[in-house]
Amino acid sequence: MAPTSFKLNTGAEIPAVGFGTWQAPPGQVAKAVEIALKSGYKLIDAAYCYANEDEVGQGLKAAFDSGIKREDIFVVTKLWNTYSTRAEVGLSKSLKSLGLDYVDLFLVHWAVGMNPNGTRPDGGDADRFPLLPNGERDILWDHDHVQTWKDMEALVKTGKTKAIGVCNYSKVYIENLLKHASIVPAVNQIENSPALPQQEVVDVCKANDIHIMAYSPLGSTGGPLMKSKPVIELAEKKGVSAGTILLSYHVARGSTVLAKSVTESRIKENLKIVDLTADDLKVLSTVPEVLTKEGAPLRYVYPPFGINFGFPDKQEGKTLKNGA
Ligand SMILES: NC(=O)C1=CN([C@@H]2O[C@H](COP(=O)(O)OP(=O)(O)OC[C@H]3O[C@@H](n4cnc5c(N)ncnc54)[C@H](OP(=O)(O)O)[C@@H]3O)[C@@H](O)[C@H]2O)C=CC1
Ligand SMILES: O=C[C@H](O)[C@@H](O)[C@@H](O)[C@H](O)C(=O)O
């Protein structure tokens, strides 16, 4: 039987399947979170950047009011780049929106600092996405992600988060962070799917007892992964949906998987995980080649920071301190 949870390097259990909230629209996300929790999800993945934490908090409250216990739910949120020099402020804002006094895991969203006092020529959301007059993101080029990590470490003592981790860290970023870290990140949340197995960073995390949380497992919104031939054929063979295959892939690799949906039937369907054998994983290992032949992309989430994050498939952009 596929595992339903994994152990973090803090000793805490983390569920194998989590509910994602990125791009979950206002007016829908509160209900979606409530349905997810009442259907059996034990992990909610949020972020300040998603600009919907108030509504996620409403969904949590509705579930808690119905008898679900806070201590049975694993809540994750993330420090956004404009708060990279103000980790405690970032966490406190998220806690207020979520209506919680602690989260189970607080993650650095990207190893980037963005101008905390920036503006936008178009009057848009400068608190999250400050832009320069030329339209580029307003990046703090001298910012050191290791310093953000030191501030994250200090947060653990406040009790406002039970554990800390990172997102979007490549092998070289993890290695550079570990040279200076007093606390080894509990988690690295990365884009992961049969299209983008990221074996290099998965291996370095495993070697250092850093748990992988896989995001965009279904290829995010509108991606070609759900329709990829090896995925469809394996789904037919096993008598399950393509989505079930794509989610089960991570649990078979020992990772937690995050799936987002605001559609009740899909929210429920995405809880289903099946065992995949070594042969099944071999079939899925052909996905990158198949998609590449079709001219389809393999990585779906790569925001325009203009930074080299050290991923082997993306080597362009500027170098940051302690970066690639
Ligand atoms: N740390 C980071 O930088 C990042 C973290 N994440 C986290 O990971 C989560 C998941 O990744 P995300 O990029 O949202 O994408 P997913 O891979 O979860 O795909 C979500 C899309 O798939 C659709 N969908 C969901 N279930 C099914 C299904 N069973 N059959 C068909 N379509 C389905 C959803 O539609 P609908 O909602 O309309 O049902 C939505 O359009 C995020 O929500 C977020 O919490 C994601 C990206 C980056
Ligand atoms: O978590 C999801 C993603 O990382 C998302 O937060 C970013 O892609 C963000 O929209 C950006 O444009 O930088």
TrEMBL record:
Transmembrane segments: none
One Pfam family matching this protein: Aldo_ket_red
Chain sites annotated for binding substrate: 109
Site entry: Lowers pKa of active site Tyr: 78
UniProt-listed PROSITE patterns: ALDOKETO_REDUCTASE_2 (PS00062), ALDOKETO_REDUCTASE_3 (PS00063)
InterPro entries, per database record: AKR (IPR020471), Aldo/ket_reductase_CS (IPR018170), NAD(P)_OxRdtase_dom_sf (IPR036812), NADP_OxRdtase_dom (IPR023210)
One GO MF term attached to the UniProt entry: oxidoreductase activity, acting on the CH-OH group of donors, NAD or NADP as acceptor
Keyword Chloroplast: no
Keyword Oxidoreductase assigned: yes
Residue stretches making up the NADP-dependent oxidoreductase domain: 17-281
Domain of life of the native organism: Eukaryota
Xref: SUPFAM superfamilies: NAD(P)-linked oxidoreductase
Positions annotated as active site in the UniProt record: 50
Keywords: Oxidoreductase
Protein name (Swiss-Prot/TrEMBL): NADP-dependent oxidoreductase domain-containing protein
Organism of derivation: Neoarthrinium moseri
Lineage: Eukaryota, Fungi, Dikarya, Ascomycota, Pezizomycotina
